[in-house]
Every structure is written in C-alpha cells, then in structure tokens.
Amino acid sequence: MLGARPATCPFCERAAAGAVFAANATAVALPDAYPLAAGHTLVCPRRHVSDLFALDEDEWSGVWSLVRDVQRRLVGGVDADGWNVGVNAGPAAGQTVEHAHVHLIPRRAGDVVDPRGGVRWVLPDRADYWSRS
C-alpha cells in the first residue's frame, strides 16, 4: 500500500488492490491503465506525493532504481527495440494524476512512421529540429 493519500488516487488504489508488477522499499511499478504499448509501466513512490521533485533522496533512488529493474524484467518479454522514459511533472507538463510517476514505454521499430525526436513531440512546433535550416 502507498503512503498518506487523498480519498481518491488511482495509483494508491491500484497498489492497495495488489496490481503491483514490481516493488522495492520506496517505490512500486504498476501496469499503465491506458498503455501506449504492450508493457507500458508506471513507477511511482509508495508515499503519495504529487511532485516528483519533492521526493527525498531514498525515494528518488528507489523510483529510478525500480525503473531500471522493471526495464530489465520487461526486456525479454516485450520484444522492445527501444524505450521511452517520461515524466509529466505538474499540470503545465501534462500531469493528470496527482501522484508522482515515471512512464516506462517499450518501443518497437515501425510503431510510428518516424520516431525521431521522441519526447520532443510534446511541443510539436519545435520537435523536428532536424528539418530546419
């Protein structure tokens, strides 16, 4: 179960229900409820905190250590050719669930026409820097 939380937090609720894919002392990994690709996983601190940058050192280390551990666990089972690792920190960055989390998204060659730029596409007008003179 995750730490002190508001009445409704989908990550806290799913963790409490046992939907945990992997865990360590300070973080849990949950399958994304709306996956972009097979294996899309969320890693979040056990303590309910909305801002990733408000984590203490142990939580920070635990989250990023679990991101690596989950990637290693998934690598054989999801046949990924690459990975996107993403964080939406704050509403202006697109965070919709007020519980800090990291997205780990397996990618496959050909899953999009042109994957160049990756996370840069959060600002589409600036993403394809390689096509500008």
What does this structure look like?
The longest helix has 18 residues, at 57-74. 22% of the residues lie in helices and 17% in strands. It contains three helices and five strands. It has a five-stranded antiparallel sheet with strand order 1-2-3-5-4, sandwiched between helices. A hairpin with a 3-residue loop joins β1 (22-23) and β2 (27-31). The relative contact order is 0.18.
Key phrases:
133 residues; alpha+beta; five-stranded antiparallel sheet; 3 helices; globular
Oligomer: single chain
Largest sheet report: 5 strands, antiparallel
| Percent helix range | 10-25%
Low-confidence stretches: none
Q: What is the first-to-last residue Cα distance? A: 52 Å
In brief, what are we looking at here?
The chain has three helices and five strands.
Task: Summarize the topology.
Blueprint: H1 10-16, E1 22-23, E2 27-31, E3 41-45, H2 57-74, E4 82-86, E5 102-107, H3 124-127
Antiparallel strand pairs: 1-2, 2-3, 3-5, 4-5
